[in-house]
Design a protein that fits this description.
- The structure is a single chain.
- By secondary structure, this protein is mainly alpha-helical.
- It has one domain.
- It has two helices and two strands.
- The termini are far apart.
């Protein structure tokens, strides 16, 4: 098996294709260009990060939905119990009484 000459080798392990250095992934782009192929471990790591971000965003949306639902039901109960201008006083009393949660 003949080894490649120093002239045919590139530092990254790629080969020469028509006088141009190619990256080790074998795509036809020159080694200096950005290659769209990535090693599997980095790609898997990026996918897992993206999946975790999607799960995190979905969790935040769920928490916000629960908070808005709880607030809506609390305000509607106060609305049913107090009518007219008394509603705003009761709402303020409720908010100041329940600041912690």
């Amino acid at each position: 098996m003949a080894s490649k000459s120093l002239h045919d080798r590139t530092p990254a392990g790629g080969t020469l294709l028509q006088g141009r250095a190619t990256p080790p992934c074998g795509c036809a782009k020159p080694a200096q260009a950005v290659c769209h192929h990535r090693p599997m471990s980095k790609d898997a790591s990026e996918r897992s990060k993206t999946v975790m971000q999607v799960i995190g965003i979905a969790g935040l949306v769920g928490i916000m939905a629960m908070l808005f639902h709880k607030g809506f039901t609390d305000i509607s109960v106060i609305w049913q119990q107090h009518s007219g201008p008394d509603f705003w006083i009761a709402l303020a009393r409720y908010l100041f009484r329940n600041l912690a949660g």
